[in-house]
Amino acid sequence: MSLVTVLRIIVLITTISWADSLVPLPAGSSQQTPFQVNKLTLEFVEKFRQQMARGFPLLDLPVLAPFTWKELHLNDFNNNILRLSAKLNDGITRGLDVFDVTALNVQISDRKLDFQLTFPSLQTNGRYVAKGQLAGFVPFDRSGKCSLQLRGLTMHGTVVFDLWRRYLFVRDVRVSFAVKSSQVEFENVMLLPWNTFLFNRIVSGQIPEYLRSNRNAIVMKIRTKIRSKLNEILWKYDVPDIIRIINATVSTG
């Protein structure tokens, strides 16, 4: 999934969490209860899930089920067993619309949203161009078909936001990922079948470990890169605009 797409998804989740004013208030109530706010947000997330196969053209958000992407870079990976630089091209990812909202807490008074999504299985297929060295002495420089399956992928996020007039802006954002297991297949990445098997086993095992060992660095890197870009997207639409677009897209989709 491209960075811009991830950003827009976070924008949608952040924006709909602010939409508690759309829920009819019980008689005598002056503000929404936490239960009502979370319930409203879950309803919008479900609408978003239903629309993923059609996309949100008015928000320039593409079809996400399945999601097609052009390229992804992996630069200078080195764990002393495997040294690898690769580019993945013309990929398609399936399973993004199959997820559980395992945690959701909107704190309007603190301007904070905590969420956790769990994807049982994500399957990606595409092509690769890769070069590097296996076990310190077996070089490779190959291209071909590739596939990646992630099982039990968890996305945990915290967004701290505020409102200026009718616009949201993000004060802080933290997103981390964990995965229970992964299976990678780079076809014919090595000349010998046994070396290809060994390469794929090593890469498959390294993905969960890499996410665990580098969690804080990944969180900070995402925070540095996307906070300003989130706000660039948010400033294009005020809150009522986005809510109207979401509702109009779902009702006509």
From TrEMBL:
UniProt keyword annotation of Signal present? yes
The organism's superkingdom is given as Eukaryota
Record's signal peptide: 1-19
Against SMART domains, the record matches this protein to: JHBP
Under InterPro entries, the record lists: Haemolymph_juvenile_hormone-bd, To_sf
Which PANTHER family does the record associate with it?
Answer: PROTEIN TAKEOUT-LIKE PROTEIN
Q: What is this protein called?
A: Lipid-binding serum glycoprotein N-terminal domain-containing protein
Q: Which organism is it from?
A: Anopheles coluzzii (African malaria mosquito)
The organism that produces this protein has a lineage beginning with: Eukaryota, Metazoa, Ecdysozoa, Arthropoda, Hexapoda
